[in-house]
Automatic annotation (TrEMBL), chains A, C:
This is Serine/threonine-protein kinase RsbW. Residues 1-31 are annotated as: Disordered. Residues 37-102 form the Histidine kinase/HSP90-like ATPase domain. It comes from the Bacteria. GO terms for molecular function: kinase activity. Keywords: Kinase, Transferase.
From TrEMBL, chains B, D:
Residues 13-121 form the STAS domain. InterPro entries: Anti-sigma_ant (IPR003658), STAS_dom (IPR002645), STAS_dom_sf (IPR036513). Transmembrane segments: none annotated. Pfam families: STAS. This is Anti-sigma factor antagonist. It comes from Actinomycetospora succinea. GO terms for molecular function: anti-sigma factor antagonist activity. Belongs to the anti-sigma-factor antagonist family. SUPFAM superfamilies: SpoIIaa-like. PROSITE patterns: STAS.
């Protein structure tokens, strides 16, 4: 249960492969997506969605708290890198007892995400997997995965 | 954030300071995140500069604690040691205890279940 | 305070005018938008976002409850009309002590929203304004407005 | 919804029936909406067909009540009158009382603060 499959085959899971969409990272289809102005004042609403989905997917309360915090970290790291007037987009896919989250913002060429920060360490501690998505020159993202402990 | 005026109409973090007998108690209510940590840092530093014997952070009504808030707590701990102030946290609910526990910081702090217990030491 | 202005001029408010966007109803820009598969199982998450935003905009608890319920009604009316595989999109704009919500789904030509139902009556009772948005042949929507009572 | 399997893993509405001395008590917990109303309707009709003296709907743990749920309550009221069953609601919190009040339905129903009070009548 703690071993994520290397390949994902069902509809909602392939949607979490950010390389798959023809629209690049901007248009990564997931069953649930939240789009907000890339403004720190709107991050609380995004992390509330993460917590709500985890609770409904029957994650235990610690895991709900961890995912809320991890999504907060991801958004807090990305929002300052967003292009003026850009959107923060967070997609959520729930499957096989885990939640995948893909958060991203539109960036200019030189934006880079620091992984030597306390925030990044917290983020990796709280999740089962965390990856920077930097293949798309126009968008920078973070892919998080959190497993449910209870089966 | 000036752009989304109504969204941030209410300050999402309440900070209330009480001083007596050389002890300062900062009561926090709401969410400690990227948005609210800077103002809290200023308040904590102000209290530390007053060199109280004890600085209590009452976090019973905190609903969210993000990494910026955790980083502030770690900073405040170092600074309190430099200034010989006893820093004590009051926290007993998941929004505070889980972030401390999940990041392995619980043991660093002197944790109390109530302000009275923290003041008694 | 209970008199909505006939014309809206600031940035977030013009975004609530569904006729303004060049992308039609599908791409109606708002500070916050939730996009989910048009599936009744995802409506609880959409109404939770509405309640969260209302609470953060300092609506009183009855008004939070009313908006949660009104958004539930709007989504419940629209989701059965959505094209196979389509998305339910709900945009939220908070300004001047009110929240505007625009919910919409992609439809085929003959989809129509019944306004002679108990659900529609509940929706109009709970909001300060409710309009069907049917100018776009590809999308059908509902625009709700809820004022905050406290200033 | 079969398509989003894990989302609906837990039934979002708990329905538990207890019968004794000619009274039926249906205890509800969770959300009464478009998704959960059909199963609840079947259960309520089943109990009404048993013609108890009293049918109590315990809604103390209901967290959301949408128009489909309100419509079901109105239907159940009419049907209970047809069958000479006394329908009584137990509700005291906002998720139930506000929808009833906002839609002007409160006065139609016999509302009680507890199951004991509802059974006593
Ligand atoms: N088991 C849970 N653990 C933690 N939070 C929960 C749980 N269930 C619900 N919540 C939170 O409580 C809020 C309201 O829940 P609820 O009343 O069930 O939602 P709704 O009325 O939208 O359908 C949601 O935003 C969700 O985040
Ligand atoms: N004043 C309020 N009234 C009703 N619900 C509220 C209120 N404040 C917060 N909530 C709800 O409680 C949930 C969690 O709130 P909170 O812990 O403040 O959010 P977060 O940790 O995401 O920043 C939110 O989903 C929101 O809907």
């Amino acid at each position: 249960m703690q071993t994520p499959e290397p390949q994902q085959r069902d509809r909602s899971s392939t949607a979490t492969d950010p390389g798959a969409g023809s629209g690049g990272l901007a248009e990564t289809p997931t069953p649930v997506e939240v789009r907000v102005h890339a403004d720190p004042a709107l991050i609380p609403s995004v992390r509330a969605v993460a917590a709500d989905l985890a609770a409904r997917a029957d994650f235990d309360l610690d895991a709900v708290s961890d995912l809320r915090m991890a999504v907060d970290e991801a958004c807090s790291a990305l929002v300052p890198l967003a292009r003026e007037g850009g959107q923060l987009r967070c997609g959520f896919a729930m499957a096989d007892g885990r939640i995948d989250v893909i958060c991203r913002v539109p960036v200019t060429g030189d934006a880079a995400l620091r992984q030597d920060t306390f925030g990044w360490r917290v983020l990796t501690t709280l999740t089962d997997d965390a990856q920077v998505l930097d293949a798309d020159p126009e968008w920078l993202g973070i892919h998080l995965r959190k497993q449910r402990l209870n089966p | 954030m000036a752009t989304d005026d109504d969204l941030a109409a209410e300050d999402p973090l309440g900070v209330d300071v009480q001083r007596s007998n050389g002890a300062s108690v900062i009561r926090l209510a709401g969410e400690i995140d990227m948005l609210t940590t800077p103002a809290l840092r200023a308040k904590v530093n102000e209290e530390l500069q007053g060199k109280p014997t004890v600085l209590v952070l009452d976090m019973l009504s905190v609903e969210f604690l993000g990494s910026s808030g955790l980083a502030l707590l770690v900073e405040a701990l170092d600074e309190s040691r430099n200034r010989d102030v006893a820093l004590r946290l009051v926290a007993n609910s998941r929004p505070v205890s889980r972030p401390l526990q999940a990041t392995g910081l619980t043991d660093l702090f002197a944790l109390y279940p109530s302000v009275e217990a923290a003041l008694a030491g």
